[in-house]
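for the writeup, i need someone to sanity check this before i put it in the appendix. the sequnce is what the collaborator sent (i think, or maybe the updated version? ugh). structure was predicted straight from it, no edits. if anything looks off just tell me and ill rerun, i have time this weekend
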Amino acid sequence: MLMESLAGYAPEMWAGTLKRHGFTSIDADVLKAPEPGNPGALMVRARTRT
């Protein structure tokens, strides 16, 4: 995972929140913006147990 944050929240924070709510197989990353200085995009994918 990248250590960058989006709006003050790191991908690890989002992964921890999802885990506490029962999600598994969590993948959270910040994708770099194509232009320097612009914010990236936070991409999160998680599954629940079925």
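The CA atoms of residues 16 and 26 lie 9 Å apart. The chain has one helix and two strands.
thx in advance!!
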